[in-house]
């Protein structure tokens, strides 16, 4: 349910959830549903309006962009009276239906509003809502009243961290949010290859089965992380993405093996192995379909790994997205705000300039999907340098052109003088 919704799919199925996120072919085309003026993205907002708005505001905020008031008010206007958010409410004047409120959308909204600042009341109400709809196992479901899942629990825990609320203090029937999160993680009794992974939900026999997409989102929470993931202190945000070493593209990083009882370390190690086996990306397989790259899962894995101190592994995933993410970001010709936002957040978390993401300016592309920003930062030094390089090239080209013209004129003049001199010498009387 979660993954299909987040990619703007027109149907929510359990199979899609268990398989992770869909390939670009499943991305929504232009929406038959009217898209509000304040919303980022042009695809159908029914299942992911709030989700993508939160991620878009987060991503642009990290780049110093001041969003339009309409973009922020659209998000705050979607909040329900009880503090949660729906996936999308086409008519905010009508009360929300409690059973269809969305823990994932609420997590995205909370993290965006915390980052933007000035929305303490909305965040406080959301945290209270999380407490109200928490399940007895300490976790959360996508919609209230259904069994908990690893994705949703991880996202809520990250939102609690962002809101400066200790997840250990958010409890239901003696189970904390951290109990709920760790309850989905495969521990030391699991096969070595899947230790540290998170399950989406137990299977029919009650067994936890590793799910890469659930692992990617839950691993961020396991590392006490939230969005946006901070840029590495030692890196320059002006650097562009560069290919990883041949070693990192074919094998896990050289980080020491994690203890299987170390939730953060084991989760990170599992994701690093999965990325390595996929040559830089996670893989998904929908029922009846062939295995395909999991773009969204790869983006979340990069965020988790960057947050958890595995920068080399995170960069491996980001490099893969730099080379292959264009089709995801431009699904069926319609720019996908969620994809653009996640790649901007990935770039920031690994010290890469999202305005020089290969040949793409992710920030400009995301801005173009929504209302014009109220303000944008001055061009970065890297952007200025790039502009200067272009100017120099243009100046050099212009200089070269004028030089050729001058040389041509001089040559022409010389030829003319020579011809004139020759004519004179030919017509001059011989002595």
Automatic annotation (TrEMBL):
Keyword Cell division recorded: no
UniProt xrefs under SUPFAM superfamilies: Terpenoid cyclases/Protein prenyltransferases
Secretion signal span: 1-27
Transmembrane stretches, start-end: 401-421
InterPro entries: Terpenoid_cyclase/PrenylTrfase
Region feature Disordered, mapped onto this chain: 231-260, 370-392
Biased composition (Low complexity): 231-258, 371-392
Lineage top rank: taxon: Bacteria
Keywords per UniProt: Membrane, Signal, Transmembrane, Transmembrane helix
The protein, known as: Prenyltransferase/squalene oxidase repeat-containing protein
Organism: Streptacidiphilus alkalitolerans
């Amino acid at each position: 349910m979660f993954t299909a919704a987040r990619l703007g799919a027109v149907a929510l199925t359990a199979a899609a959830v268990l398989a992770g996120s869909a390939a670009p072919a499943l991305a929504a085309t232009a929406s038959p549903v009217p898209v509000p003026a304040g919303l980022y993205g042009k695809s159908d907002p029914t299942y992911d309006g709030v989700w993508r708005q939160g991620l878009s505001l987060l991503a642009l905020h990290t780049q110093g962009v001041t969003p339009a008031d309409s973009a922020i008010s659209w998000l705050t206007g979607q909040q329900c009276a009880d503090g949660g958010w729906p996936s999308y409410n086409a008519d905010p004047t009508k009360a929300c239906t409690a059973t269809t409120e969305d823990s994932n959308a609420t997590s995205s909204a909370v993290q965006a509003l915390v980052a933007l600042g000035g929305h303490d009341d909305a965040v406080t109400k959301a945290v209270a809502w999380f407490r109200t709809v928490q399940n007895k196992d300490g976790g959360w479901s996508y919609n209230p009243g259904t069994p908990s899942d690893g994705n949703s629990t991880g996202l809520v825990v990250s939102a609690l961290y962002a809101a400066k609320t200790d997840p250990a203090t958010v409890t239901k029937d003696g189970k904390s949010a951290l109990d709920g999160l760790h309850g989905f993680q495969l521990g030391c009794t699991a096969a070595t290859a899947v230790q540290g992974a998170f399950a989406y939900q137990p299977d029919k026999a009650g067994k936890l089965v590793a799910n890469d997409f659930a692992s990617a989102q839950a691993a961020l929470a396991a590392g006490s992380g939230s969005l946006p993931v901070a840029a590495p202190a030692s890196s320059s945000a002006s650097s562009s993405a560069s290919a990883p070493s041949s070693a990192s593209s074919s094998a896990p990083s050289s980080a020491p093996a994690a203890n299987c009882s170390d939730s953060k370390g084991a989760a990170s190690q599992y994701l690093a192995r999965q990325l390595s086996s996929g040559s830089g990306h996670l893989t998904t397989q929908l029922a009846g379909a062939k295995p395909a790259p999991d773009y969204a899962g790869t983006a979340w894995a990069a965020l988790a790994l960057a947050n958890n101190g595995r920068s080399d592994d995170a960069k491996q995933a980001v490099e893969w997205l730099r080379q292959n993410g264009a089709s995801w970001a431009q699904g069926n010709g319609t720019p996908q705000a969620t994809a653009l936002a996640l790649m901007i957040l990935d770039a920031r978390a690994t010290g890469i300039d999202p305005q020089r993401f290969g040949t793409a300016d992710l920030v400009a592309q995301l801005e173009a999907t929504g209302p014009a920003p109220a303000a944008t930062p001055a061009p970065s030094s890297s952007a200025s340098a790039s502009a200067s390089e272009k100017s120099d090239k243009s100046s050099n080209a212009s200089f070269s052109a004028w030089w050729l013209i001058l040389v041509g004129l001089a040559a022409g003049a010389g030829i003319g003088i020579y011809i004139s001199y020759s004519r004179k010498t030919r017509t001059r009387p011989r002595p």
